[in-house]
């Protein structure tokens, strides 16, 4: 497992294979996620006429 200090933060990933290797090092260290979160947003609109 890679720790934060092991990673080169200034590296620019120019190739797809390099990006895949980088993601394999930093993501899913304990396995892929088993639950996916969902965020819901509600907007409320007042349909009554505006009174001035």
TrEMBL record:
Q: What is the lineage of its organism?
A: Bacteria, Bacillati, Actinomycetota, Actinomycetes, Micromonosporales
This protein is called Ergothioneine biosynthesis glutamate--cysteine ligase EgtA
Please provide the record's keywords in A-Z order. Ligase
Q: Which GO terms describe its molecular function?
A: ligase activity
**Keyword Ligase in record:** yes
Highest taxon above the source species: Bacteria
């Amino acid at each position: 497992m890679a720790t934060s200090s092991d990673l080169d933060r200034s590296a620019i990933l120019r190739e797809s294979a390099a990006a895949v290797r980088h993601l394999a090092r930093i993501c899913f260290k304990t396995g892929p996620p088993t639950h996916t979160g969902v965020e819901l947003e509600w907007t409320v609109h007042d349909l009554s006429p505006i009174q001035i």
